[in-house]
Amino acid sequence: KAGVTQTPRYLIKTRGQQVTLSCSPISGHRSVSWYQQTPGQGLQFLFEYFSETQRNKGNFPGRFSGRQFSNSRSEMNVSTLELGDSALYLCASSPGTGTIQETQYFGPGTRLLVL
Amino acid sequence: GQQVMQIPQYQHVQEGEDFTTYCNSSTTLSNIQWYKQRPGGHPVFLIQLVKSGEVKKQKRLTFQFGEAKKNSSLHITATQTTDVGTYFCAGPGGADGLTFGKGTHLIIQP
Asked: Given an 8 Å threshold on Cβ–Cβ distance, is B100 in contact with A44?
């Protein structure tokens, strides 16, 4: 099976702009989670989608949003970018049998740099 | 919310030495997972522990889950250069999703 794919892999934006990141989960996986990874804060949970519905949400401002499509592909959007949003954004998929505690299969990530 | 503390933050070892990283939670965990992230890579699942006092082995890696299900450890015997990376523990965070520790960076000197 193909792994989790994320596009784009690298992105440079300026403050105030918005960005959309895309994630394609492993075939058959219905749950997609997003994480932000920075050197200072480590891996932080953003949100999780299952069957096109946001099932869990981390402690991030409303500028961070996401959605999931009927084919389980997911996008996350960050509006009004700030310098502190520079990070590696990781998407992870899991079968989605009902709990967030399933094994997470991570994609390669999108490295976002905000100037 | 739940916190997962991991120590040490960095560990330098000579190749062939053993390595241990420890994970402590402020609350009882139903299960704990361990991931490894190579430099420039993404986290890769290693193992999940569920039972109190559980010990699992993967070749040179030994994982333990504490009796109270609030702590866990990963021990690597006779480290090799391929073991370089950051090791994360993660516990279920309920509404917060998976809660990851900050990770232990393993640096191996040949």
From this structure: yes
Assigned token pair, B71: 């702590």
As a whole number, the mean pLDDT across chain B is 93
Please give the backbone phi and psi of residue B96, each rounded to the nearest 5 degrees, phi first. -90, 5
Q: What is the pLDDT of residue A96?
A: 79
B72-105 per-position pLDDT tens digit: 999 999 999 999 999 999 998 665 578 899 999 9
**Tally of helices (H runs) and strands (E runs) in chain A:** 0, 11
Inter-chain contact A99–B42, Cβ cutoff 8 Å? no
Residues 6+ apart with CB under 8 A from A52: A67, A68, A69, A70
Judging by DSSP bridges, how do beta strands A64-68 and A74-78 pair with one another? antiparallel
Give the pair of three-digit tokens for residue B35.
């991931």
Q: Which value, to the nearest 10 degrees, does the dihedral of the CA atoms of residues A110, B85, B49, B71 take?
A: -110
| B102 vs A contacts (CB less than 8 Å) | 42
Chain A CB contacts of B69 below 8 Å: none
Q: Which amino acid is at A20?
A: T
Torsion, Cα A37 B19 B5 A49, to 10 degrees, reads 40
Point out which residues pair with B34 in neighbouring strands. B47, B89
Amino acid at B92: P
Tokens for B48, please give them. 């999940």
